[in-house]
From TrEMBL:
GO cellular component entries: membrane
Keyword entries, A-Z: ATP-binding, Nucleotide-binding, Phosphate transport, Transport
Domain ABC transporter: 9-235
Keyword Lyase: no
Record-linked InterPro entries: AAA+_ATPase, ABC_transporter-like_ATP-bd, ABC_transporter-like_CS, P-loop_NTPase, PstB-like
Official protein name in the record: Phosphate import ATP-binding protein PstB 1
GO BP terms, alphabetized: phosphate ion transmembrane transport
Any one GO molecular-function label of the UniProt entry: ATP hydrolysis activity
Pfam entry (one): ABC_tran
Domain of life per record: Bacteria
Gene that encodes it: pstB1
Amino acid sequence: MTANNEIKIKARHLVFSYGDNRVLQDISLDVHEGAITAVTGPSGQGKSTLLTLFNRLWEDIPGARMQGSVHIRLGGADQDIYHPSCSLPDLRRKVGMVFQIPNPLPMSIYKNVAFPLKMAGISNEAQIKDAVETALKQAFLWDEVKDRLREDARRLSGGQQQRLCIARALVVEPEVLLLDEPTSSLDGKATAIIEALIVSLKQACTIVMVSHDTAQVERVADRWVELKKGILVLA
Ligand SMILES: Nc1ncnc2c1ncn2[C@@H]1O[C@H](COP(=O)(O)OP(=O)(O)OP(=O)(O)O)[C@@H](O)[C@H]1O
């Protein structure tokens, strides 16, 4: 997939609060298909929160409230992701997310990547094995782990753990990947590998990425928006 003029995510008039704390004030944003869109801005401005509006991850937080709409083009059709007919498990499969701190599950490297497939009800071991290998290759990790797939994933380095988390997100072939400061806990070498990986993933999906690091955004992103005091500013 290459960047085109199709709109993958259309967010309109998003207003979001945690209790009395209004974090987002009337945000509207178009995310282009096959592109990397970066969201930057000072700390505490709502960048991570904005990502969670694209996969409804905020909904379990007590007192959190949202107004506005988010439409995502999934499987070739426009979906209002807040419409009651939208299936949350399907949405979470199609819109993957990777967090700031790598969060491998307490199990083997192989089982970490296979986990979302099992959750999706896939039981064919040959199919799972192929998908795990493909995702680990896509995440630039296969060569480093192919001989230690049964090892506990928590023994990997920080950069490897983050690539494992990216592989775990990729294994269900998401159409959108939300990356929340994916390199902020990593050193320069691990960051460089993940930046190259992110750019390569444009072939497979549309990416929305939060980053503090403006140099990184210039290296990686096709489009860049800034959040300031809950308002989006086109950078
Ligand atoms: N689960 C939550 N419950 C209550 N308030 C929250 C929650 N998560 C975030 N907030 C508050 O919402 C505001 C925005 O936080 P958010 O993490 O979205 O900002 P950010 O721009 O991503 O910050 P940073 O760059 O430091 O990660 C902050 O005031 C934060 O304290």
